[in-house]
Write a structure and sequence with these properties.
7-stranded antiparallel sheet; 47% helix; alpha+beta; 7 strands
Length: 305
């Protein structure tokens, strides 16, 4: 199994530097959002797209891995501060997150337009019309809605290869990974990172194992809808030979070195499932409370002054 924690892959990502600051607001501020990404093998693309992404990977002008999230955020802000604001770009992004594993290229397209369409659809569904109008003019809202409807009607894929979560990470997102796949980089700039990377085949097996343990020990009702949606998402968007990555994104810029160094949520979820399978209810409760406390403290920062 391919591992990153303490490995060449993690070391090659960036050199870890020690810091003494409690918070990282001296760094470029990124949205406090975490990401779950699927990287497709280059062979999964059509010949035309394959040629494009191979050329893109060798380009000196593309956003490099350590700056890609900041570049994506800058592009988003550029659309937001225009008058009127632009809900979604007129063309799909031709940028992507890239990885090379065992000399093989893996690509996770940004899919900015599709993700913007979906986010705006969720926003309008959850927000009173008068408030929507206050943020986005009718003409721009209509343009976005029409574009997304035409995309859906064409039969094109409507599920992006990137999921996002703001201010917290859903518990099911930890299940596909193991502690050994952890990569932590502590620094004072945009390279500050905590992420996990694994093969999608491994991720699916871990999800299936967790569901089986929950079903056997607690019952069908214990399997959350979010876990089922995660399994369905991987099944629908991920090539069998793809990679899946959990990236804490902007959250490390909000959290202290100590918090990040002691955040072993993936390992704790793995231990909790193992304890549940053995019938060790006390251990399960202990781990669940530890994870709940950690992420409750992170979510509380959303309302901090």
């Amino acid at each position: 199994m391919w591992r990153t924690h303490g490995s060449r892959s993690c070391q090659a990502f960036l050199t870890v530097s020690a810091r003494g600051n409690d918070l990282c607001h001296d760094a470029i501020v990124l949205p406090y959002t975490a990401y779950l990404r699927v990287y497709q093998p280059i062979t999964a693309f059509s010949p035309r797209d394959r040629r494009y992404w191979e050329g893109y990977a060798s380009s000196k002008d593309r956003p490099k891995r350590i700056n890609a999230l900041a570049a994506e955020q800058a592009e988003s802000l550029g659309r937001t501060i225009t008058t009127p604001p632009v809900v979604a770009p007129t063309e799909e992004s031709r940028d992507a997150y890239l990885r090379r594993v065992d000399e093989r290229l893996y690509v996770c397209p940004w899919q900015t337009r599709l993700r913007c369409w979906r986010s705006f659809a969720e926003f309008t569904a959850d927000t009173p019309t008068t408030l929507v109008d206050a943020y986005v003019p009718d003409r721009e809202a209509s343009r976005a809605e029409t574009g997304y409807r035409q995309w859906r009607d064409s039969g094109a894929e409507t599920r992006p290869g990137i999921l996002t979560s703001t201010w917290t990470i859903p518990v099911p997102w930890f299940i596909p990974f193991e502690h050994q796949e952890r990569c932590l980089v502590l620094s004072a700039d945009t390279t500050r990172t905590l992420l996990y990377l694994t093969r999608t085949s491994q991720a699916r097996r871990r999800l299936e194992h967790t569901v089986a343990v929950l079903r056997e020990r607690i019952g069908e009702h214990a399997i959350s809808g979010s876990t089922e949606r995660l399994m369905d998402w991987l099944e629908s968007v991920a090539h069998p030979d793809s990679l899946v990555e959990l990236d804490y994104g902007g959250l490390p810029h909000l959290l202290s070195d100590d918090h990040l160094s002691t955040d072993h949520s993936v390992a704790e979820i793995t231990d909790a499932i193992e304890a549940l399978g053995k019938g060790d209810g006390g251990r399960v409760v202990e781990l669940r409370e530890r994870i709940t406390r950690r992420w409750r403290s992170v979510r509380a920062l959303e309302h901090a002054n």
